Amino acid sequence: MRFARLFQTCLLLALLCHAAAARADAPRAPAAPATQAPGETFSLQLAANGSPAQDAESGTVQFIGTATVIIRFQGFTILTDPNFLHKGEHVHLGYGLTSERRTNPAIRFEELPPIDLVVLSHFHGDHFDQKVQERLNRATPIVTTKEGGERLKRLGFTRIFGLSTWDRLDVARGESRLRVTATPGRHGPAGVAVLLPKVMGAVLDFGANAAAPDYRMYISGDTLVYDDIRAIPQRFPDIDLALLHLGGTRILGVVKVTMDGKDGVRMMQVVRPKKTVPIHYNDYDVFKSPLEDFAREVRAAGLEKDVVYLAHGETYSFSRVQR
Ligand SMILES: [Zn+2]
């Protein structure tokens, strides 16, 4: 026990030194605009499922818990950051650190509908837990970071798309089209993030014309709001819905590695989505900024009408957008 505490203290000191060093080393001149990186395109053809896409005009986002949502639109069923542990179970966050779940998922893993694609922001226990690692069908297509993709391949998953920032995955089924683009994300202050898994956000463009999509969704991933985030609305204006990973997660109770309530509002002001759904806000004991922090900041900024609050299990419905 004493050794564990000593180890954690050393780790905390290492994290803080690393962050301070990175700040001191930070270049003063702005980096080349992230908007100019071209990105590579990958493609995924899904087998026709026999039924015409009945949901061409309207779709749903069901919040399951943590950063897990089920998105249904235009014949696609997409699962994000699958986490199906229950209250009292623990996840591993690396370096011997664990966190206890405080909520239950709205459905059990066994109750999932057939999934066309998993969008995984990063390979961390609260986003792809040990039970999902064991039970998820190895042929399930998963789009994630390059680093996360390598971990998944080692676990035996066979349809992995590992993306760098601005890479795209074009998904087709019959007449339906979906483009997933990896967007910048950084899991903590510059120096600390290098010690944590690489993170990507994602923009989902539904419809045949990705430049004028039928619906455009942004999923932040576990990130702070930093300079590169500004490139997202430059490349992807008119985001219809943003799913923001909040929680103000703190490692060892000190180092903030996900957005808190205030950061969530800043993110809304940078990305300017028409609607925002906060997720990843109360599920683990490392989440230190409750949803009320965000709600208070939203009220202070006069943004109430732009936010939709979903409890675990609740569903947000949306309609195709004419541009
Ligand atoms: Zn997380």
TrEMBL record:
Q: Which residues form a coiled coil?
A: none
**Where does the signal peptide begin and end?**
1-24
Record keywords, A-Z: Signal
User: Metallo-beta-lactamase domain spans which residues?
Assistant: 100-281
Would the keyword Membrane turn up in this protein's UniProt record? no
Question: Has keyword Signal?
Answer: yes
What Pfam families does UniProt report for this protein, alphabetically? Lactamase_B_2 (PF12706)
> PANTHER family recorded for this chain?
METALLO-BETA-LACTAMASE DOMAIN-CONTAINING PROTEIN, UPF0173 METAL-DEPENDENT HYDROLASE MJ1163-RELATED
Q: What is this protein called?
A: MBL fold metallo-hydrolase
Q: Which organism is it from?
A: Massilia consociata
